[in-house]
C-alpha cells in the first residue's frame, strides 16, 4: 500500500519565490521541468512542473521512496493497482517496489514538490534521460517501444537495480536487457554522458571520460 500522510520533512523545501535553486532541467516529450533545490547524500528534492498532457510512464524503484506534494494543478496517478487524482495540498508517498506513474490530464500546468530518498543515482539518471530525449538521441513515450532500442537497453541495464519496468520479473529484465546492452555497447552506445551532468561537474566528468 502507499501512504497518503507526510513522512518526510518538506519544511526546508523552498518555493520558486525564495532561495536559489541548484539548476533546472527540461524534457519536451514528456512535458516535464524539474528545478533541483537539494542534492545531498540523504535525498534529492525539488519542484516538478508538468504541462497538460505531460507524463511519467509506470515504473518501479527498487529501494527508494518517492514523495509528491501538489502545490497547484492536478495529476492522475497510478500507484500499484489503484488510480487516483492528486490535487492541491494533497501528498502521496510511494514505497519501494511499488508500480507508479502519472499523467496531467487537466488544462493547467501541475506544480509539485518531489523527493527521492535515498537519492542513489536518481538525479544522474534523470539528467541523462532528459538530455538524451531533449537532443533527439532517445525517445521514450508513454506507450510503445523506446527508440533506438539498443541505446535504451544500454542505459536501462546500467540502472536496473534502482529502477525497472512493472509486470516483468526483474530477473527476466536483467537477462533480456543484459543481452541487448552487450549488443548496444558493441554498436557504440553508452550509458555515461558527461555533457548532461550537473553544471558544476561537467568539466571534471568530461576530463575523466576523455
Describe the structure.
The protein has 210 residues and is an alpha+beta fold. The protein has 2 domains: 23-120, Jelly Rolls (Sandwich); 123-209, no CATH class. The protein is built from 4 helices and 11 strands. The protein has helices spanning 122-134, 149-159, 170-186, 202-209, and strands at 23-27, 32-39, 44-50, 55-61, 65-72, 74-79, 82-87, 91-94, 100-103, 110-117, 163-164. It has a 6-stranded antiparallel β-sheet, with helices on one face. The chain has a 5-stranded antiparallel β-sheet with strand order 7-6-9-4-11, with no helix packed on it. Strand 1 and strand 2 (32-39) form a beta hairpin. Helix 2 crosses helix 3. The radius of gyration is 17 Å and the shape is globular. The relative contact order is 0.17. Mean pLDDT is 88; it is low at 1-18.
Structure, briefly:
The protein is α+β, with helices and mostly antiparallel strands. The protein is built from four helices and eleven strands. The strands form two sheets. It has a six-stranded antiparallel sheet with strand order 1-2-3-10-5-8, with helices on one face.
Amino acid at each position: 500500500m502507499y501512504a497518503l500522510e507526510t513522512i518526510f520533512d518538506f519544511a526546508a523545501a523552498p518555493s520558486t519565490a525564495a532561495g536559489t535553486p541548484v539548476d533546472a532541467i527540461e524534457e519536451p516529450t514528456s512535458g516535464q521541468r524539474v528545478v533541483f533545490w537539494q542534492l545531498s547524500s540523504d535525498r534529492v528534492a525539488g519542484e516538478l512542473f508538468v504541462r497538460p498532457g505531460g507524463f511519467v510512464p509506470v515504473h518501479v524503484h527498487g529501494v527508494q521512496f518517492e514523495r509528491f506534494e501538489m502545490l497547484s494543478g492536478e495529476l492522475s496517478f497510478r500507484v500499484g493497482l489503484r488510480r487516483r487524482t492528486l490535487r492541491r495540498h494533497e501528498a502521496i508517498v510511494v514505497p519501494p517496489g511499488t508500480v507508479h506513474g502519472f499523467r496531467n490530464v487537466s488544462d493547467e500546468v501541475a506544480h509539485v514538490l518531489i523527493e527521492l530518498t535515498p537519492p542513489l543515482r536518481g538525479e544522474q539518471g534523470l539528467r541523462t534521460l532528459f538530455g538524451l530525449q531533449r537532443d533527439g538521441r532517445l525517445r521514450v513515450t508513454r506507450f510503445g517501444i523506446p527508440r533506438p532500442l539498443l541505446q535504451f537497453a544500454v542505459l536501462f541495464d546500467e540502472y536496473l537495480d534502482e529502477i525497472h519496468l512493472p509486470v516483468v520479473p526483474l530477473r527476466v529484465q536483467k537477462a533480456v536487457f543484459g543481452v541487448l546492452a552487450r549488443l548496444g555497447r558493441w554498436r557504440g552506445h553508452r550509458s555515461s554522458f558527461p555533457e548532461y551532468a550537473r553544471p558544476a561537474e561537467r568539466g571534471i566528468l568530461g576530463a575523466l571520460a576523455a
